[in-house]
Design goal:
The complex is a heterodimer of chains A (about 775) and B (about 130). With about 775 residues, chain A is of the alpha+beta class. Chain A is about 30% helix and about 20% strand. Classes of the chains: A alpha+beta (about 775), B mainly alpha (about 130).
Chain lengths: ~775, ~130
Amino acid sequence: MFNVFPLGKLLDPFIGALQNEADQELNSTLSTFDKMGLADSVQVFFDKRKVPHIYAKNLDDLYFTQGYVTAYLRLWQMDFLSYASAGRLSEIFSKGFLAYDREQRRLGILSAAKRSLELIEKDPETNRVLTAYTKGINAYISRLDYKTFPFEYKLLDYGPEPWSNLKTVLIMKYMASTLSGYEEDFSMSNMMLALGERNFNKYFPDYTSHITPFTNRPGKEPDSPLSIIRKPDYLDYSFLSSGLPVSDSFYNPRLGSNSWVISGKKTKSGFPILCNDPHLNLSLPAIWMEMQLSAPGMDVYGVSIPGTPAIIIGFNENIAWGITNGADDVKDWYKLKITDDYKKYKFDGKWLDLNFAVEEIKRKDQQPFYDTIYHAVQGPVVSDRRFAGKLPGLKNYALRWQLHNASNEFLTFIRLNQAADYGGYRKAIRSFSCPSLNFTFACKEDTIAVTHQGSLAVKELGEGKFLLDGTKSSFLYKEYIPADSLPQVINPACNYVLSANNRPTNASYKYYYNGYYSEVRAERIRQMLDSGNSFDLEKMENMQLDNTNAFAVEALPVLVKYMEHKDKSPELEIALDSLRNWKGTYNAGDESARLFELWWKNITLSTWDEFKEFPFKVRFPDQYVLLDLIRKDPDNECFDRQGTSEKETAGDIIYAAFITAVREYDKIKKGRGVKWGDHNKVNLMHLTKINALSDVDLPSAGFPEAINAISSDWGPSWRMIVELGKRPRAFGIYAGGQSGNIGSPYYDNFVKEWNKGGYYPLEFYLSEKEAREGATNTWQLK
Amino acid sequence: MKKKNLDSLKAMLLVFVLVILTRMIGTLPWWSFVVPVAMLGVVITLKNWDVACFAIGFIAGFIIWLGADIYFDRTLDGNIFNRVAALMSISKIGVFLISGSIGGVLTGLALYTGKSIVFNKTSPLIY
């Protein structure tokens, strides 16, 4: 990332890195900050984990102080994220980031943030909060000199710029892009052409019998007309012929979350319990920061995202809420017909002017770079004759992304923080547009709910699943699903609601929508919630830490049955026996999980071996689709291997895959070991990707398809369990620490506990007096 | 005590005082201590002190930097030099030594430069 850092300054003991060890204001009993321009004095009580509990006498002072405290703990992180979001990393790094910045600008994130800010500034409620928050951050920045700059500024040799409301919006857009950036229109278009309609619908159905919708349960049969996708008329090989490859999406489709709410009718205490664990990239400093915000009319605890005001996931005395990614496809590509000189493009039979804007990308130690970005009616042209970026195959395609639209997501959280009942929750989430999220909800009076909230376009069947024809206005979405018609449920008969990036409805839902849903975790949550009636906080912890892969539990007996009458060597018999005794768990010490993974991988590769011939990046069908084929259609042509004279069936594939898997497994066993923890190493990377500033190679339990969805660099970034009642009882933990200062003991002090599945009691104080008594140190701002 | 030793001791003590005083003024750039140290070098020439300027400056700067490194590392509760050491792929002691050397070289060069930029007519010319 960089070769040389300013050694003289950095290693100067008086002002350099060493001075970043001075966490004085987090350690001294009382710190006073005068002349802050506050209307009244504000008290900040830090508990022993250095969670700030902010007590203000009005909302302006509250958000000002939230900004101030957040900047004290996390300034570099939030500043860096705003640069990354805006496509400004070339201002920090002298080389290596121009292409990233161009891509980011061309994706339209900076311009979208500016549009959203214009909208937000027209809303007095939000503007007031953002402005106070910005002032608080700037009050902290104005105190800094080189000696007190966060370490990373010294390392990278630059300083913080003044904060602005735009930077706050950029961070929200960054989150929106992370959660809604994935799409696979190009590969799905190719798959439709390669497979034909019949097989495409068979292998890539929108609905299967394995969905766990939270509305319209129980599920309808998946052969409803809404689930049969027709090939769009315009979609043929000449339409697709760009001659250039499309690489994998650089967004992670598996970033998700779990959340469920159990009604008091199913809990030991008689009060509802809400659980949430959002699965995001695991980084240091962590994306979350805990705090309590208290002012007249508001008293809320939870996690915030540094750089944005309010609490994003949390609870107050009356309600608790959680969020999971809606996982909908809100991003589409339109193929344009553009003249060679990039002056005109064809639209509804007419040649329209192709607009353009010139973006200035400032560069460290170099002249600025000016990038011309073309815009069609659908959106920006990301790849063109001058820039291929990561999407060369999408040259001359316009991008239409819900993220581009002006929206105000902050208002949702500002209102949720103060909400006291279901009505307040509904009012709060209505304005949430992008990304689509599932908002789970519980209130003290035992109303539980979940809403699939976001701006979802009204689409024709299959629309948005494939690349779109940009020459016709008929492919532009004009309407959105009305808020009241979005998938939602309140107080269902089963006495719980759940959301785990699964399809929110079954095929009987009246609108077509598509996305990248995941059903395995939802199924496991459903099984566990159906199996009991007297849940308590301890059971919820065990559930969040559950390492069972529901798919493996379902698939294993099917696979093992195929092995029963096959010839098996003693080694194969032993291996099969170990799998028979395996419960589908991915605990750190489990040895069979790796064998199952290898077996299933080999089955998948052998079954879909004909896809290898395709000259484009393929996506394999969902694992449940393959399992259903094995169960119901073992003679299907997909099991016939390429290049053999025999006609193989599912049984042959499963047998051969097992032999290969056992061979691979034995090899690994002799090498680094086959315990799941030997393989599943978690890396909490610093945002600069420097190992020395990161916590790497942590052996861990968990699996992306288990509720405890841990992977090498993403997973349950925040685990929260809240039981409402006379006084909320809550537990939580995130992978990191409150401070972003690499020299601080609070930089990563939660990581060890998080990795072994521990929780901290969340100290939600009901009065300033309680907070004072629980404080290890106090700040007074005046 | 020999004149050379006495002059060296005086010079070193003065370097200590000048560097520490300059470093206490937070508004000055981090390298500003070289200016008063260089001026001391001028004084050394004008006063005709017998001092091996680079060596004395280096030792003084090295001691100040290293001493401050050890002081701040012990009194503050973090472990930032462990991270910096990992970043530079060397041991923590290595970081201390590099930091001390930076202080030493800068102070030594400053003192030597100050000494060399003026000419004292009263000092003996040795060719």
